[in-house]
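Curious: can you check?
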Amino acid sequence: MRILSRSVVLILMLLSVACDRSLNTPIWHDLDGNSIKLSDYKGRWVLINYWAIWCAPCKKEIPAFNELMRKYPDKVVVLGVNFDTVSKEMTRESVEKLQIEFVVLQEDPKYALKLEKKLQVLPSTVVFNPEGELETILVGEQTLGELIRIIQ
């Protein structure tokens, strides 16, 4: 009976995790393997910034995102996505080279968020309001002032 009980508990736990992933709670990972869910940031603005090492406007706007995170750590979260599908090691090298201070995701969330057709220009930034709803998609280079206006 004890073995059956443990099996049932294990199955229920696995089903719970599977259900959590399917109920609009996609789970991604940062470059260190830590789990990240959009729902973890409820109550804060979430900006998902798409960049590439070869993109000149991306390079110019990254300091603005770094500064936004430093100025408003309790109000804003910036997550980065390398537009190029490259290895984790290559992404880490790019993060260092570009001096990115915000979390960069291993997986591209655009598929889970059903945004793949809307993200074809770099840089692009997906903005979620504090309720977790898609607010807007910013296309092109952003300045610190423009980013602050969006979250005000």
In short: Confidence is low (pLDDT under 50) at residues 4-23. Strands lie at 27-29, 35-37, 45-51, 76-82, 103-104, 124-128, 134-139.
